[in-house]
Design brief:
The complex is a heterodimer of chains A (about 260) and B (about 160). In chain A, the strands form two sheets. Chain A has a three-stranded antiparallel β-sheet with strand order 1-2-3. A two-stranded antiparallel ribbon of chain A has the order 4-5. Chain A is built from ten helices and five strands. Chain A has helices spanning about 5, 10-15, 20-35, 75-85, 90-105, 105-115, 125-130, 140-160, 165-175, 190-210; strands at about 40-45, 55-60, 90, 125, 135. Chain A has about 260 residues and is mainly α. Chain A is globular, with a radius of gyration of 22 Å. With about 160 residues, chain B is mostly helical. Chain B has one domain (about 5-140). Classes of the chains: A mainly alpha (about 260), B mainly alpha (about 160).
Chain lengths: ~260, ~160
């Protein structure tokens, strides 16, 4: 495997999948960084109150390869926050949102990709494409695309004897090709689904621009958008019977406001 | 930082303001109300935690940056989280918030406290305060003319200079 071990999944996608979506590029980039141990996920179990259920909080922090990893521009959407503070631990869903916000649009994400040193010979842009977005494949790019598709096809054939790729085989493959494992058939990871779900939530939130009025507890999924998204109130928000002022005053410091 | 302080800092740092399964989390709200990105909000929350930790290790009054203060204000609205979970269980003391009474004397006092805060931050965390969250005193105490604006009915246009 030459290309699958050298290129990031997002780079492979832009070469081989014409209708790739913003969500797919973000998702595969995030998971690739996790699989390469550039980022690391961990869980914390908390029980806020005795009567409440234990909640699971999933976080991301830097992984053991973070410091030596030469990141590409499209990977910085997820990595740059950690450059500012190596110790920061970010809720999984917040990092998904950060990646989405930083990448801005599909067009912006693609622009970052086609300018990476590994791919810049693959694409060309005329003035119209530079202004309005878009790109064309060069001969070199078309040839590279063909070679990558062949490589994916060969690997799929090699693995076709297995009903489902078992964990050990998957681990071995991940070591070599990172997140590109998800370009293969028969792979379905819970983590990938979670990123998918969090991304969908964030993208729909932004697209609908529906202002919340401040409360919790309204169910919402990618497939089933509720116009009540974060409006209306559940039992424990805002100024119910248990609010008002808790008697602040005279204290140790705050100026200028 | 001695062992006891390190333990407390770890507890404060790992205190979570966001609930995992709600649509509009603390971080979302902070970002929305201040026009910040989620990244900036996440970093501001960490700076807020550092500020609160500093309050616990000194008897000298301290002053936060406006950004950190916004996190504090919002946390104070989440009364269960702030008073019961954070102050009572983690910090084990009440930390009250006191707005300025105004006037030049107050401004001078808070400027000194702000400088003192940044100095203590450096001594404690062995790193300078990030400038985009802890601006200079000059900016901190001059660029404070904020108003609540209904953006459904108003446009906000940046001044050219």
């Amino acid at each position: 495997m030459i290309y699958l071990s050298e290129l990031t999944p997002a780079e492979i996608f832009i070469l081989t999948k014409e209708d790739v979506t913003h969500q797919e590029l973000l998702k595969i980039t995030f998971i690739d960084l996790l699989l390469k141990n550039v980022l690391k996920t961990f869980e914390v179990h908390r029980q806020p109150h005795i009567q409440e259920e234990i909640r699971i909080y999933k976080y991301i922090r830097i992984g053991q390869n973070f410091k030596n990893y030469k990141s590409k521009n499209h990977e910085k959407f997820f990595l740059s926050t950690f450059d500012k503070d190596l110790e920061i631990e970010i809720l999984f869903r917040n990092l998904v949102k950060i990646g989405y916000q930083k990448s801005r649009t599909l067009s912006n994400f693609k622009n970052e990709l086609i300018k990476t040193p590994t791919l810049k010979k693959c694409f060309s842009q005329n003035i119209i494409q530079i202004i309005f977005g878009g790109y064309s494949f060069t001969e070199f790019g078309t040839e590279l695309k063909r070679k990558i598709e062949k490589e994916i096809q060969n690997l799929n054939s090699e693995l076709s004897g297995l009903n489902n790729i078992d964990n050990q085989k998957a681990i071995e493959l991940i070591k070599v090709i990172g997140g590109n494992i998800f370009l293969l058939e028969n792979i379905d990871y819970e983590l990938l689904n979670q990123i998918d779900s969090d991304l969908a939530t964030e993208m729909n939130r932004k697209e609908t621009n529906n202002d919340g009025s401040g409360c919790s507890g309204c169910g919402w999924t990618f497939d089933n958008y509720s116009s009540n998204f974060d409006s209306g109130c559940s039992s424990d928000s805002g100024c119910g019977g248990d609010s008002g002022c808790s008697g602040c005053g005279g204290c140790g410091g705050c100026g200028g406001d | 930082m001695n062992d006891e302080q390190q333990k407390l800092w770890n507890e404060i740092k790992s205190f979570e303001l966001d609930e995992p399964e709600i649509s509009l989390s603390f971080t979302d709200r902070l970002a929305r109300e201040n026009g910040w990105s989620i990244e900036y909000s996440t970093r501001a929350i960490l700076e807020y935690k550092k500020f609160i930790f500093l309050l616990t290790i000194t008897t000298h009054p301290l002053t936060p940056s406006d950004q950190v203060d916004q996190v504090w204000h919002l946390h104070l609205l989440y009364t269960h989280s702030y008073w019961e979970d954070f102050c009572e269980k983690v910090i084990k003391r009440k930390i009250h918030h006191g707005p300025t009474k105004g006037g030049e004397t107050e401004k001078t006092k808070y400027t000194n406290w702000y400088e003192k805060t940044k100095q203590l931050y450096l001594e404690t965390f062995k790193t300078e305060t990030p400038k985009d969250i802890w601006p200079s005193s000059e900016i901190r105490f001059s660029e404070i003319e904020f108003k609540r604006v209904n953006i459904k009915r108003n446009w906000i246009i940046k001044k050219p200079f």
